[in-house]
Design brief:
Blueprint lengths: L1 H19 L1 H20 L10 E5 L4 H8 L10 E2 L5 H7 L4 E5 L3 H6 L7 E4 L4 H24 L23 H32 L1 H6 L5 H31 L8 H25 L3 H17 L12 H6 L4 H13 L5 H32 L1
Parallel strand pairs: 1-2, 1-3
Antiparallel strand pairs: 3-4
């Protein structure tokens, strides 16, 4: 009973320390509310209001039809510029696309020739450049075909392709971005809170106080894990139901309880990792540098940003030891596809094994750092 009481009381101390750290507390609150809302709703992967300009060297009826085919919400109203202004406009960043219609373009089309149009693209705006190029080609081909045929022709191929988009039929980026950002925030805050908790003990001189108390390193580490994990879980519940499901109107197909169960296992692994980093770093700036080296691979290579199938096999195999890989897998399966326990239990088991290893390493490193202190 004394053993459990020590862990409980030390955990209460951790929660009080966090509540007294106003800056860190405000950062945590913003991460689970404003950051998720801003990242998912403001940053869109869809083409919207793309700036485009046209160099019309033909001044024909066909060229005017092509220009008028670009309209909102995908494109802004096209501006007419001179050929000599193309390079400077792209260098300045005034336009993402500049379409150059050559002289005698309409005449060559009617003569059965195959004249070419030039599309200059500012590829530094990567998302707009990739998607907009396909939009521009489709719009131009449709206008030329309609002009030549005299009507909007419908071509029937021998084989019909029928696409059925499941779980996100309108390809709404908010549905994907909000849940993925929540997973990134959970991992980031879990490492920050526990890492900062270890360093705070050292900087405030309270670590020496703990050493003279009848508590063991295991009790100290366990207390930091359950206290910070509980705080994060409360914010996850609020963010999931109020921010994502409430404000952003994202449908959650699966069991929220099952997702929260998996999140608690993930927190066990990431908070242990945070303590491990906290024992490696001596100051908060050092912890920040270590987090950059740790968080970027965990988030970028876990499958939340790009599919794991598109990565090299060696990277996929290495990332199997990362907790975020399994976290992304079961979170997407539950919240997007409504998967049940029979589907996600292998991910839970793998995450529990990774968490146990992280905890043992963190505990060993903490004991060593205490002995050095």
């Amino acid at each position: 009973m004394q053993y459990d009481s020590n862990i409980f009381q030390l955990g209460i101390k951790e929660i009080r320390s966090l509540l007294q750290d106003k800056v860190l507390l405000i950062f945590v609150i913003f991460s689970f509310t404003g950051l998720i809302y801003v990242v998912s709703s403001v940053s869109s992967i869809e083409l919207k209001n793309a700036p485009i300009a046209v160099v019309d060297e033909d001044q024909s009826h066909l060229s005017q039809r092509i220009i008028n085919a670009f309209y909102g919400p995908y494109f802004k109203t096209p501006d007419s510029i001179l050929l000599s202004d193309v390079d400077s406009s792209l260098d300045y960043g005034a336009y993402t696309f500049v379409l150059d219609i050559p002289p005698n373009f309409e005449r060559d089309v009617l003569a059965g020739k195959q004249p070419t149009l030039q599309v200059n693209i500012d590829a530094t705006r990567m998302t707009q450049a990739f998607i907009g190029d396909n939009y521009i080609q489709t719009i131009i081909n449709a206008e030329i075909n309609e002009f030549v045929e005299g009507y909007r022709a419908i071509y029937t191929l021998p084989i019909q392709q029928s696409s059925h988009i499941m779980f996100n039929p309108n390809l709404t980026s908010v549905w994907f971005g909000s849940v993925m950002e929540l997973m990134n925030v959970i991992t980031m805050i879990a490492i920050i809170l526990t890492g900062a908790a270890v360093i705070r003990e050292r900087e405030h001189g309270t670590l020496e106080h703990l050493l003279v108390m009848p508590v063991t390193p295991f009790e100290i580490v366990a207390a930091k894990i359950w206290a910070n994990g509980l705080v994060i879980m409360l914010f996850v519940i609020f963010s999931l139901f109020v921010v994502i499901k409430g404000f952003l109107q994202v449908p959650l197909h699966g069991s929220a309880a099952l997702f929260l169960l998996g999140t608690s296992i993930h927190l066990f692994a990431t908070t242990s990792l945070g303590i491990l980093l906290g024992t490696q770093a001596r100051t908060m700036p050092q912890l920040g540098l270590l987090m950059i080296l740790t968080l970027l691979p965990l988030q970028m290579l876990s499958g939340g940003v790009t599919p794991r199938e598109s990565m090299p096999d060696m990277v996929q195999n290495i990332m199997l030891i990362a907790p975020t890989t399994h976290f992304v897998k079961f979170a997407q399966a539950i919240l997007y596809r409504g998967a049940g326990w029979d589907v996600v239990w292998p991910y839970f088991l793998a995450l529990l094994a990774i968490g146990t290893v992280c905890f043992l390493f963190a505990l060993a490193r903490f004991r060593k750092s205490v002995a050095i202190s």
